[in-house]
């Protein structure tokens, strides 16, 4: 079965689009491929928008996104295009079996439904999501699939199906809905059964959007003033709104126990949180959890600075007025 390509799209009130960074054909590509053909201009700097179709709409809204399907299988192919149900289970984006249906798939159509592609060619398709007026609030999940079906191997009754897909996240609510956000409650140093040092962060999704976690950790101030890293988080942890999950970062099997200062950065899209903690790794098993100094995302500090600046200006104006009255 072909590799599942994880992608998706954002719905926005604009007709301006940019080409995704990953839109170049990789050299030596084989098999069936699918990708976003455009990204809204104002989201071109959002890494999540370049990888997924993610949208936030009101009931009664219709959105469209253009995708590209490529045939590099070595033979002509009849490609079926459709939406299938997905969900979040145990902090993982979970694909339902076959052509499973949920509310989002009943709102979603792909035009055309089928495409005949010669080898080495590609075609565009349009994904349309028509959200009904009575749609419930909340986030729903699906996958837009491109699928080819081959004849069963000789002597078997099993049909061969290969498909690639684009993730679709759709949040329905009034206005812009709840923004994405999360907090890092604590980090735990540990060693797995193979003796590899790991840092495990407990992350709570405090916003209204699903999170696809990524990030890294850097270690400093270790024994003999050692430093290490960066070590990247293992991708694949998806956290539903209101849920808590663990994000594990593998470090090194020969890493001294410490103590270390661990500088951890976690992100989902444009939401970044930084935290530092003093950790000591155990000889084996799970160490002592450490509370974090979560510094929040890159956005709230801008708001705080603006509030402080306004307060400073108001204070200066009041002082000048008071001095002017005293001089008259």
Keywords:
mainly beta; 2 domains; 23 strands; Immunoglobulin-like; 6-stranded mixed sheet; 328 residues
Please explain how this structure is put together.
This protein has 328 residues and is mainly beta. It folds into 2 domains: 17-172, Immunoglobulins (Immunoglobulin-like, Sandwich); 182-297, Immunoglobulins (Immunoglobulin-like, Sandwich), CATH 2.60.40. 12% of the residues lie in helices and 46% in strands. It has 3 helices and 23 strands. The strands form 6 sheets. Strands 4, 6, 7, 9, 11 and 12 form a 6-stranded mixed beta sheet that branches. Strands 13, 14, 19, 22 and 23 form a 5-stranded antiparallel beta sheet that branches. β16 (214-220) and β17 (228-232) form a beta hairpin. The longest helix has 28 residues, at 300-327. Mean pLDDT is 81; it is low at 1-17, 21-25 and 297-308.
Compute the gyration radius: what is it?
25 Å
What best-fitting shape do the alpha-carbon axes yield? Answer: globular
Number of domains: 2
Give the rounded overall mean pLDDT: 81
CATH architecture of the largest domain: Sandwich
Largest sheet: 6 strands, mixed
- Indicate the CATH topology of the largest domain: Immunoglobulin-like
